[in-house]
């Protein structure tokens, strides 16, 4: 297993051999070094696979492919936006299907023992009815935008389609754009959440005010009541 230099490659730059390239492709498909080595044709895949992953050139090729195929921030936001906007009606086709009714055969008492399937047997009457709406999956839309479909299950009423939660996707998009500010309720008053460091400084300031008021109360008569703190925890 020797590396070779491709045509036009800079001097001293090593390239993957054809077999190593096949290993990289198989590994990115199976995520198993042993299985990838076996599919590529190495004689001892249990040892060849891990050894190839330690090869610097092979590892760099794998990391490059992963980086190229990884989803960027813009694509993530675009996918979430699609999930938030999608309407399930795009994956369903509604058809009007005609219905019909079958009238049962009326029998006389003396005809109960006769063969109903003989040549002279009376055929049931079929009459036209109305129309009913039947919903069918739009497989063309599913094939084109299947990444928006969470699952498709077979039920006794037919296939059931489930999309990814659009409300959750909408919240994620809103958080990205910083549309929501988290709040907390303190003593019935709604205030903005503050930075933990700012809260610590306020607590220390209020504690110092309380200690000062207590000291003044011991020295000056009538000064024992704690003054109202100028820095409330929610201000």
Task: Write up this protein.
The chain has 235 residues and is of the alpha+beta class. The protein folds into three domains: 18-69, Arc Repressor Mutant, subunit A (Orthogonal Bundle), CATH 1.10.10.1400; 72-102 and 123-180, no CATH class; 187-235, no CATH class. 42% of the residues lie in helices and 20% in strands. It has a two-stranded antiparallel ribbon with strand order 1-2. Strands 3-4 form a two-stranded antiparallel sheet. β5 and β6 form a beta hairpin. It starts with 17 loop residues before the first helix and ends in a 16-residue tail after the last helix. Mean pLDDT is 77; it is low at 1-13 and 229-235.
Q: Can you summarize the main beta sheet?
A: 2 strands, antiparallel
The Cα radius of gyration reads 38 Å
Ends: how far apart? 70 Å
Tally of domains: 3
Our estimate of the beta-strand percent is 15-25%
Helix content: 40-55%
Count, helices: 8
Assembly annotation: single chain
Protein structure class: alpha+beta
> What is the mean pLDDT?
77
Order of helices and strands: HHHHHEEHEEHEEH
Strands side by side in the biggest sheet? 1-2
Shape: flat
Low-confidence stretches: 1-13, 229-235
Number of strands: 6
């Amino acid at each position: 297993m020797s590396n070779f230099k491709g045509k036009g490659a800079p001097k001293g730059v090593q390239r993957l051999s054809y077999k190593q390239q096949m290993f990289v492709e198989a590994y990115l498909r199976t995520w198993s070094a042993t299985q990838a080595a076996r599919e590529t044709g190495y004689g001892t895949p249990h040892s060849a696979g891990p050894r190839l992953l330690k090869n610097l050139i092979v590892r760099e090729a794998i990391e490059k492919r992963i980086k190229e195929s990884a989803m960027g921030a813009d694509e993530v936001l675009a996918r979430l936006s699609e999930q938030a906007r999608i309407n399930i009606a795009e994956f369903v086709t509604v058809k009007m299907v005609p219905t019909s009714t079958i009238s049962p055969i009326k029998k006389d008492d003396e005809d109960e023992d006769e063969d109903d399937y003989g040549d002279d047997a009376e055929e049931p009457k079929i009459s036209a009815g109305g129309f009913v709406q039947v919903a069918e999956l739009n497989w063309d839309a599913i094939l084109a935008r299947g990444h928006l479909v969470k699952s498709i299950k077979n039920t006794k009423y037919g296939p059931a389609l489930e999309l990814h939660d659009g409300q959750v996707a909408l919240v994620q998009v809103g958080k990205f754009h910083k549309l929501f500010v988290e709040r907390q309720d303190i003593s019935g008053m709604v205030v903005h959440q503050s930075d933990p460091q700012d809260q610590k400084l306020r607590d220390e300031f209020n504690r110092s005010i309380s200690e000062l008021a207590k000291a003044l109360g011991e020295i000056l008569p009538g000064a024992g009541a704690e003054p109202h703190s100028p820095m409330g925890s929610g201000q």
